Amino acid sequence: MLPLSPQKKEYMDGRDSLCKLLNSLIELGKPIKRELLLDYVLGRESSPLLKRGYDNLETFGCGDNKDEEHWVEVIDQGIEAGYMKVKSEGVGIMAKGK
User: Fold this and answer.
1) Alpha carbons 30 and 95: distance in angstroms, whole number
2) Do 12 and 1 touch, CB atoms closer than 8 A?
3) Residues 6+ apart with CB under 8 A from 69
4) Mind listing the pLDDT tens digit for each residue in 8-36?
5) Torsion angles phi and psi, residue 85, rounded to 5
6) Euclidean distance between CA atoms 6 and 28, whole angstroms
7) For residues 51 and 34, is the Cβ–Cβ distance under 8 A?
8) C-alpha to C-alpha distance for 23 and 60, rounded to whole angstroms
9) What is the DSSP string of the chain?
10) Which of 24, 5, 2 is nearest to 14 (CA)?
């Protein structure tokens, strides 16, 4: 179970969401900025994603059943728990081990 945030005492079972996020990062195959990762999992057809052809990947939009706040929490907790890492400031997020 992942805490929703350090300020909140509520918890969510984020395993399914974390798996979707990690599968997306693996399919992308390279670091991606947080804003673009949010657009990607939510299925938003932003210009940078369309330009790279990411909208044609299987996991594009895999998280459109949840809102942005949910995905921000999953990203933050995934990084904190060590499942993902920030490559370097400005470069992006990637699955751990990549």
Assistant:
1) 9
2) yes
3) none
4) 555 667 899 999 999 999 999 999 999 99
5) -140, 155
6) 29
7) no
8) 10
9) -EES-TT---EE--HHHHHHHHHHHHHH-S-B-HHHHHHHHHT---HHHHHHTGGGSTTTTTTTTS-HHHHHHHHHHHHHTTSEEE-STTT-EEETT-
10) 2
**Residue in this structure with the two tokens 């299987």, named with its chain if needed:** 58
The residue with tokens 């984020």 is 14
Q: Tokens standing for 30?
A: 């390279």
| % of residues, the chain, pLDDT over 90 | 71
Q: Which residue has the tokens 């998280």?
A: 63
Structure tokens at 82: 């060590």
- One-letter amino acid for residue 71 of the chain: W
pTM of the full structure? 0.83
Q: What is the CA radius of gyration of the chain?
A: 13
